[in-house]
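Explain this one:

_____
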Amino acid sequence: GDSRVVLLTPTGEKTAATLGVDYVPNNLAVLNKISAVLGNGTEGKMFEALRDRSWLPKADVGRALGYTCTGTKTFTKTVKILKSKGLLNSVGGNLQLTGACFPFGKDDDDADQFSANPDAAYDADTDVESYD
């Protein structure tokens, strides 16, 4: 998981709530929070299309958003925005949400199983992909 993530005991969760600390208990809650912030526009729709953690071809993501071409300014701008927010990986013609969207790690029971790019060797400790 992310080194910035602190897991709380049930007592810690109650204390965080009384102090008004922003606390999310699992990846699903993180994903829902990001989704709410992004809203129902193009950014939110792209995020939702990629929520299952798998790498998807840009063409598939584009179709999910109603585009016949991923070279449009809106699609390209949306990819750039999500990348600049640290939410999106783009390798070749594929897109995937970053590890920042899954701070509790790939094995969190409240989210789908991670499916890495088959062409990459993924190092979960450093959240880095390498290619031969």
Q: What stands out?
A: Residues 110-132 have pLDDT under 50 and may be disordered. Residues 6 and 75 are 35 Å apart (CA to CA). Helices lie at 10-19, 27-38, 42-49, 58-64, 73-84. The chain is about 35% helix and 10% strand.
